[in-house]
Amino acid sequence: MVVCGLACWRCRWLLPLLLGLAIIMGIIALAGRGWLESESAPYVQQASLWESCTRGEEDLNWSCESLMDYGWGRAAAATYLVGFVILVICFALAVIAFSVEILRFNFVRGIGGLLFVVAAFQIIGLVIYPVKFTEEIPLTGDNMFSWAYGFGWASTVVVIGCAFFFCCLPNWEDEVLGNIKPTYYYSSPERAPYLN
């Protein structure tokens, strides 16, 4: 016997939890110094969203230059940061929306629309950064876009997935609220003789 159900009212906290995970990954991306790093030793270059640092092969001290001196650096940081702030607002709205007993599904769809805006801002920032960085900052040795940059993309992917779920959730309003009875499917009449 299999119970068919798309979602349940107890599972409503999964979407805000995923948004919280996206926020954590966004914080790591904003604070991390691993947007760009040297691929192998000697490690002579590393960069964050905010600055680029280099050092000589035998030098232990990093020499850092702010990326906020460049127009593209300010644009990349601003777009990613604006997307992050809207993401935090969406998280707060999602917690409020799922806390009330009578879920406002049009409100949920609005959160999904805002999450698409978040994804657009974050993607713009994540595309501007590597394109302009490699064009305007002299690179030393072999470099790669590293873990903090990857956390930025991971946050964006989670946001896009949540946006689709938030927008589609009102289509299954009765299932989520538990207003319909579950449908039971049986594989064959021989396996369920007590139904006769």
Automatic annotation (TrEMBL):
Biological process per Gene Ontology, one example term: cell-cell adhesion
Primary subcellular site in the record, as a coarse category: other
Membrane topology: Multi-pass membrane protein
Alphabetized UniProt keyword annotations: Apoptosis, Cell adhesion, Cell junction, Cell membrane, Cytoplasm, Membrane, Transmembrane, Transmembrane helix
Compartment annotation: Cell junction, Desmosome; Cell membrane; Cytoplasm
InterPro entries: P53_induced (IPR015664), PMP22/EMP/MP20/Claudin (IPR004031)
Coiled coil: none
Pfam families: PMP22_Claudin (PF00822)
Family to which the UniProt record says this protein belongs: Belongs to the TMEM47 family.
Protein name: p53 apoptosis effector related to PMP-22
Provenance organism: Galbula dea
